[in-house]
Amino acid sequence: MKRFEQNGTAPKAEGVYLLTVVSPRKGEGNSPTGIVGRCLARQLLTMGRHVRVIAERDQCGGWPDTVEVVEGSITRPLECARAFDGVESVFLAGAHPSTVQDALTLARNAAATRIVLLSSHGPEYEEANPPETWFWLAIEKAVEHSGIAWTHIRPSAVMGAVIEGTYPATGADWPGTVRADGVIREAFLNQGHYPFIHEEDLAAVAAAALIGDDFTGTVIEAVGPPLSTRSRIRSLAAALGRAIETVELAPDESRAIWQHLGWPAGAIDVTLYALEEYGARFTELVQWTADQRPSVADITGRPLRTYDDWVSENIDSFR
Questions:
Q1: How large a percentage of the chain has pLDDT more than 90?
Q2: N or C end of the chain, less CB within 10 A?
Q3: Are the beta carbons of 97 and 126 closer than 8 angstroms?
Q4: 3-state secondary structure of 91
Q5: Does the pTM of the predicted model rise above 0.70?
């Protein structure tokens, strides 16, 4: 990992791909920018791209050696303005409505030609509310009016969120309880479902949007099908080679556990609602996922990675 010195001469590079990474956020709709960003960096490097990252302090480690890392925050872009020097394309993740205009101005001044925004499904619900309450929609609108070619990615929950500690709350305490006593305790164990996408697939969608023109001016629904809570537990048990005991909780009991772990009320509400809703409308929502165009498989040119794939890659977190 190469450090990009803020007090020295900025390296002159053609076609820099700038990625932004923030500390884990538990608020509803927040994807794990660290895990996704590292996957995306590796993929871009294999394509011969020059990658630079603006990362908050606890996210500065674990990058490939050839990645330039700027310690800073995209929520305070003026403090790391020189990280935008020579930037061609930006993967904008973790931005905040109050400062996103500063980041977009820096990108525009650097003559960046493309912004790919890691958004959320929040805009679909925010539109019915007054503009002053918008969060994700405010960021999307700012990007759209930046004068730079844009693509929005609205992902489903990311499988690796359980490792990084970001939304959703379902599964958040599984690594700890499975390691400690081989038990999973959660509401909606029997009927609960939640849609997930593998972080490598999400990163592949972002890479495709960053390097080509096919998705300019579009919203990509980067969604995986809803997975049952029981199937996720079976995948873990199979990979561990032992049974996992389960305890069905009432929703308020799960709420209390998640509150103790620091989850905000909004994220808990959405998690519980989604577990119940996706279970009740499973067939309809699987079809909605299948109907999205372009699909993740269309973009990546291969089938989606499965939860079994993810578990086999991350099983040490549960041992």
A1: 91
A2: C
A3: no
A4: strand
A5: yes
pLDDT tens per residue across span 188-208: 999 999 999 999 999 999 999
Quick: pLDDT tens for 216-230: 999 999 999 999 999
- Give the number of other CB atoms < 10 A from CB of residue 250: 10
Could you give the C-alpha distances from 116 to 113, 167, 211, 224, in angstroms and in order?
Answer: 10, 21, 10, 20
Task: Say what the pLDDT of residue 121 is.
Answer: 87
- Region 166-194: mean pLDDT is 97
Mean pLDDT of the chain: 94
Element (H, E) at 235: helix 229-240
Tens digits of per-residue pLDDT, 51-82?
A: 999 999 999 999 999 999 999 999 999 999 99
Nearest to 126 by CA among 29, 23, 224: 29
> What does the alpha-carbon distance between residue 90 and residue 88 come to, in Å, rounded to a whole number?
7
Enclosing H/E stretch for 309: helix 307-314
What would the two tokens of residue 216 be?
A: 């300019």
CA 280 to chain centroid, in Å, comes to 25
Query: Hey, is 65 helix, strand or coil?
Result: coil
Residue 37 token pair? 């960003």
* 3-class DSSP assignment, residue 209: helix
Match 């029981």 to its residue by tokens: 230
Q: Record the tokens describing residue 38, joined without a space.
A: 């590292």
- The torsion region of residue 9 among left (phi > 0), alpha (psi -120 to 50) and beta comes to beta
Collapse the DSSP code of 93 into the 3-class scheme (helix H, G, I; strand E, B; otherwise coil) and give the result: coil
